[in-house]
Write a structure and sequence with these properties.
With 207 residues, the first copy, chain A, is of the alpha/beta class. In chain A, 45% of the residues lie in helices and 20% in strands.
Chain lengths: 207, 207
């Protein structure tokens, strides 16, 4: 599979979605993988753009039929990445970006060896709390759970390859863009993309 | 040493110097390591900016006194990287960029384990030949030698981490900038730079 899979993960409320939105506008040949979830839709969310909102019965059936690259229970709801879309894009040399929780990311680490794993961290816990409060879409008990989970999630950082501390949205967009561009320039990927002959040929095929 | 050493290498005439000049204008906290050479100065070159031009006797003395991080004979002339400058900058958390030949780069691979190695390749051999002719600073016999060496140098590409195929100068500058930014975001480097407490602290030190 010649496309590269970029897995963006980190605590709820850290700003992953905004960073990815900014990057999608700037980077070519990159698609976003829309997850399935049983979580209720937030007012600003759009079916099929932000998530596929499904009921538990549908989710269970998809799980049984091995339709997920990874799935996880996060804050009491199911989340899963539809496997077929990701595989088809990568096979067509299109790069794919996943926005998934930390549990899901560690599952993908075991399944997709050459994926790129990027953790987005808040500048501090206080800042994360502020952002969740500002979002105002969480019930109080959900928010406490998210903050507790965040502590455990931060412990997983050393398993990831890259770490973006999201202090400033624009800077974080620049940073994620740089990671995506740089990873395309890894020697093995360039040789796979261009073919050995292009680089090692002895003239005759110059542009 | 908390600074990162970026080693840019590739055949003569491929455009390394122009790419690096472009990057130096855009990236903060990055210094260029000026090499020593016994090669005659070209008309557009400036002592201390492009190279330290020294005679063979001086070069031999510096070699004996272990003043070089690496040295190599390229196209009949000596080239070497002054060790002390590089080490001091890295110790002061400043990132350093080296523009060295492929032999020298493979020497640094053995000495500096966490350096980042970037190969700059021409789009084709014909293109490389055109660029050397256009530069017009080489004697005919020097140019033939450079082209012969280039073939051997390209075989070393798989030892490098990144490969930039220099089709368009501006694009190559963007690519090298992205590599430098991305490498600063590697998990281990961010943790070393910020300190563990900054990322894992439980509030109280938010900005």
């Amino acid at each position: 599979m010649a496309g590269v899979l970029y897995v963006i993960s980190g605590p709820s409320g850290v700003g992953k979605t905004s960073i990815i939105e900014g990057v999608m506008k700037r980077v070519k040949n990159l698609v976003f993988s829309v997850s399935c979830t049983t979580r209720p839709k937030r007012p600003n969310e759009v079916e099929g753009r932000d998530y596929f909102f499904v009921d538990e019965e549908t989710f269970m059936r998809m799980m049984k039929e091995d339709e997920f690259l990874e799935w996880a229970i996060v804050h009491g709801y199911y989340y899963g990445t539809p496997r077929r879309f990701v595989e088809e894009q990568l096979r067509s040399n299109v790069n794919v970006i996943l926005d998934i929780d930390v549990q899901g990311a560690t599952t993908v680490m075991k399944k997709v060896k050459d994926a790129v794993f990027i953790f987005v961290a808040p500048p501090s816990f206080d800042e994360l709390k502020k952002r969740l409060l500002k979002r105002g879409t969480e019930r109080q008990e959900d928010m406490i759970k998210r903050l507790e989970d965040a502590k455990k999630e931060l412990e997983q950082i050393p398993k990831f390859q890259y770490l973006i501390v999201n202090v400033d949205l624009q800077e974080s967009i620049d940073q994620l863009t740089s990671i995506i561009v740089a990873e395309q320039l890894k020697v093995n990927r360039v040789i796979e993309r261009l073919g050995f002959h292009k680089i090692f040929s002895d003239g005759g095929d110059s542009k």
